[in-house]
Each structure stands twice: as structure tokens, then as C-alpha cells.
Amino acid sequence: MTHTSRFSLGIVGAGQFAGQFAKLFHAHPAISAVHVTDVIQDRATALVDRLGLDGAFPSFEAMLDGDVDAVAIFTQRWTHGPLVVQALRGGKHVYSAVPMAISVGEIAAIIEAVRETGLTYMMGETSYYNPATVYARQRRAEGAFGRIFYAEGDYVHDMDLGFYEAYQYSGGAEWKRTASYPPMLYPTHSVGGVLGGIGGHAVSVSCIGVRDERGDGVFDRAVSMFDNDFSNATALFELAGGGSMRINEFRRVGYPSHLRESRFRYFGTEGSFEQLVDSAVWQDKESVTDVSELLRTTATLAADDPSLADVAPALRDGFVSGLAPVQDASRLPHELRALPTGHEGSHQFLVDDFARAVADRTLPPVNAWEAARYTLPGIIAHQSALRGGERLPVPDFGDAPADVAAGAASPSSASFPAGPRGSRR
After folding, report:
1. Average per-residue pLDDT for the chain
2. Which pLDDT tens digit goes with each residue over 345-395?
3. Domain region containing 192
4. Residue 148, strand partner residues
5. pLDDT in the model for residue 405
6. In this structure, is residue 201 part of a structural domain?
């Protein structure tokens, strides 16, 4: 059966990252039209012309007043919270780039708006579909870990490998003010990869921040709009039900971020899984198994711009060869499979999750309540670092309410055309 429920989408922000997703949204069979807006109008117009999209709006407000059904927000990372609420209150479904928001109050306002409007909200956390996270989810579902009592997530993205250029592109002459963005306020790639694999949520945290010593005006409190001089931070979280999670957010680090920027480890009473830059192993009490090939993808980060990868994967028997074997390409619409992907093959899955959630009115995996659990821990961790590592409670908004989740299906169960060999799990 083919769905006839299609919707139009407006992309907010036409920067470096938005173009990757614009291609995918434009190709998805559930999306009827894609428009763009940006505070720099020429960027919006250029993106429309380059990809053959359906038009540009002169402003975010004009887009909300227009006839688009949903918006995808790709603006500066500290601006997401208020824009999301404005869009939801304006009657639009919302896809938001990470992070969800930068304060507890902003997150609470998003959850309240989702609950009151009944509209779809999804945060596009790439680590949810990182091959390591997918693998951990599968092994957890099998019970292979036993009781998982400890896990680690690292987001090790050095400023020298792409971040300087990205902030210069988006921040203009004042870019150093924004490049000092606190590492723990961008925690979802690391936290999301842990909790996306094992579930649960954090209940308390102690965090240590490392003050920067580069001396180039970045991470300088006298310059920073965030009053921040931490370039690296490490947090230890207590998890609900016992156990712990350690998170690293590093921006000054001798590490090949362009090869793998997020990596994970999970330890259980019966089995464990560990990942490095170019290898990964599953371990139990009897043996060690190299699972690197299961997780290997050609959709790595491009060396010239670590924020994205413009990898055009070839089709092999109707499946995307750029994805890792552990990723289920068969659930993707055929139209997405040969398009560029990024962040270790996650982009198509995120676009498909949102399209299905809006078209079928189902709950996406990284819904508002799940997104809060990926974002809030970092917000409180930064507060802990500012207080010398004081242990602080991490609030939790709970699971998505039953009335919101009622009737929600797995995103892989919706029935958009699958193309050749497109059976779904």
C-alpha cells in the first residue's frame, strides 16, 4: 500500500549543513515541496537554485504564515529552542538539528508545546543511527550484554579540523564570540549514542571542565558570548536504575576527528562492546570478536569539512553500499538510497523517520521526550563544571505520554514505496 498523505516542508537556515538534508527531504516520497529561508537571503535563493527546490521565503515569520506543513531548523545551535516553540505554536511540525535547546526552560517549553499542539517534533541526532549505536541496540535486544552497568560516549571533534571554518562561515566578523560555545551544551552526539543504544536516562552528574590555553581569542571569556573558557569537559553520570555513563566532549584533542568523531563503549555483566577509530570488538567471558566490518561505512566525514560528508554511494542490488552492514538500508525509500549521506550513514534514516512520523502521525524515535534525555544531561553537566565538579541532579521529563504515543508504529513499518528488494523489518 502506498501512502497518499504528503506534506510540504520549509528549511530554516541555508548554511553548510542544510544542503545535505535538503537533497534528502526533496527526494523523499512523503514530501511534496521544499522551500527555504535564511537571514542571508542570497544563501536561500542559491540553495533553491542549486537543488531545484520549490522557492524561498523572505523570513522565518513569512514561512510560518505560509502554507508549509512542517519546518526543518538548521540555524545556529543556540537558537533552536525559541524557533522550535514558535514553529509549533504556528501550527508546523518540526525537525530540529541538534541540540534540542540550551536551557532546562527551553526544553520544558518545547515539550509543553508538543503536548498542547499534538504536532510532531523530532531532533535529528545522528548518533541514534551511528553503526555502533545500532549494533549496541541489537545486542541489547538479544540480551547479550546481560545487565548494562557502564557505558561511555565520546564526541572528539577538534576545532582545527573544520570548526574554525564553520564558525567563520556562520559567525562573520564576530565568529570568535560564538566559537566559544560550551562543549557540554552540544552533548547529543555522545549522550545520544549511549542512551540510544541502551535506553534509560541520567539522574545526576559531576563534570570537570578544562580551561583553554590556546590564547587565540577562542574560548576566551573576555570574547565569548557564552562567558565560556572550557574547550574540553568530562562528565560522570549516574543512570536511573543503577550504573553510570561517562561522557567526553573534546574540542582540543590530538585525534583524527575527520575519520570518526563519535565513539562508544558499553559494558554489561555478560558481554561488552568497544569502539576505536578504525576498529570495534565484541567481548564476552570466553572470547573477543572483531566486528569492525559490520560497522564500517564509506559515509565517513569529509576531510575538508568535518561537519558533513558528500559521499555519493553506489547502488549494489538496490541497496546503498555506503552504509554499514549493520544498518538496515531496506527500510529506506528507494529515492534516498543513491543520494549523498553523512555522519556514518545516518542522514537518510533521520529524514525518513521524520517524514514517516509526520505523514503517518506516529511518534519518531528521537521525539521530544527522548531528545530531552539526550540534551539535558549536558546542560546540567556544564553547570556542574562551573561549580568545580559539584554533583547535581539531572531533571527528567519522563517517557512520551501514552496519549502522544498511542498508535505510534515503528518507523520501519510505514508503507512508502520501497523500490527493488525493499522489504522492511
Report:
1. 90
2. 999 999 999 999 999 999 999 999 999 999 999 999 999 999 999 999 999
3. 128-337
4. 268
5. 53
6. yes
Is residue 16 in a domain?
Answer: no
How far is 35 from 209, CA to CA, in rounded Å? 41
Please enumerate in sequence order all residues whose Cβ is within 8 A of that of 89, keeping only pairs 6 or more positions apart, or say none.
113, 117
Q: Count the domains in the chain.
A: 1
Length of the chain: 425
Q: For 226, which DSSP code?
A: T
420, pLDDT greater than 60: no
Mean pLDDT over 163-170 rounds to 91
Sequence-separated (6 or more) residues with CB below 8 Å from residue 236 = 205, 206, 207, 244, 245, 246
Task: Report the alpha-carbon distance of residue 379 to residue 374 in Å, rounded.
Answer: 10
What's the pLDDT at 303? Answer: 33
What's the grid cell of residue 231?
A: 574547550
Q: Which three cell numbers stand for residue 271?
A: 558481554
Q: What's the whole-model pTM score?
A: 0.91
Contact between 390 and 381 under an 8 Å Cβ cutoff? The reply is no
User: Alpha carbon 9 to chain centroid distance?
Assistant: 19
Residue 163 has pLDDT above 50, yes or no: yes
φ/ψ of 198, rounded to 5, equals: -120, -10
Task: Give the domain CATH number at 277.
Answer: 3.30.360.10
